[in-house]
Amino acid sequence: MAKRTTIRITPRVPRAPFSAPPSRVHGRTRRQQKVGEPFEDGTPEFQKPEYRFCPRCGTLLEPALEHDVTRPTCPECGFIVYYNPAPAVGAVITREGEILLVKRAHPPKEGLWSLPAGFMEFGEKQLDALAREVREETGLEIRAATLLSVEDAADDPRTHALLIAFIADEWEGEPRPGDDASEVRWWPVDNLPQMAWQNHVRVVEKAREWLGL
């Protein structure tokens, strides 16, 4: 049986003096975003799924305008299809200047690297989803984590994903690939492999700034 080790990470968070500019708080730079800015990843790769029949009564759906947005609507029972982003969670797990990444075993982006991450299940809390995804992909057990950022994803062809990224403060175990990962490996934070998702790259950059790596 592999030896299990518990790692506790204390982020280096300097005190911000009262005279600190509003763009610099608690050791990281806050970048103001403007309403209406395009996706940071470029032109979205995802497409809206097509729904033809009402999932409630089976009637053929018809387009209807609601709040200036055309949505598939059931003329019989009034059911409306809402195209909502899919929330996902991802973990930044580090040790001595290295970050843990997984190699994707399946499409999309097969063979590229990413943070341990995945979509939340309905009714699942954020940290429970984080612990499950990390366990499934790396075999590690997350005990505590800190919210780092929330990132849009335009380069996932499956859906419009919204990544909720956490820094793993406490974890234990020895990494091993599982589930959707063909390989799991520690990488120097300043020498990353080809990453599957651009929002994961942004998360790593923010984590480096937050942790002083």
Structure description:
The chain starts with 5 loop residues before the first strand and ends with a helix. Strands 1, 6, 10, 11 and 12 form a five-stranded mixed beta sheet that branches. It has two helices and 13 strands. The protein has helices at residues 126-138, 198-211, and strands at 6-8, 24-25, 28-29, 62-66, 69-73, 86-92, 94-95, 98-104, 113-114, 117-119, 141-153, 161-172, 181-188. The chain folds into two domains: 50-83, Ubiquitin Ligase Nedd4, Chain: W (Single Sheet), CATH 2.20.70; 84-211, Alpha-Beta Complex (Nucleoside Triphosphate Pyrophosphohydrolase). A hairpin with a 7-residue loop joins strand 11 and strand 12. By secondary structure, the chain is mainly beta. 13% of the residues lie in helices and 33% in strands.
CATH architecture of the largest domain: Alpha-Beta Complex
Distance between the termini: 32 Å
Topology-level CATH name of the largest domain: Nucleoside Triphosphate Pyrophosphohydrolase
- In what range is the share of β-strand residues? 25-35%
Largest sheet: 5 strands, mixed
Helix content: 10-25%
What overall form do the CA principal axes indicate?
elongated
Unreliable segments of 5+ consecutive residues: 1-7, 9-26
Order of helices and strands: EEEEEEEEEEHEEEH
CATH class of the largest domain: Alpha Beta
CATH superfamily label of the largest domain: Nucleoside Triphosphate Pyrophosphohydrolase
User: How many strands?
Assistant: 13
Number of helical regions: 2
- The mean pLDDT is 86
Radius of gyration in whole Å, from Cα? Answer: 20 Å
Structural class: mainly beta
Number of domains: 2
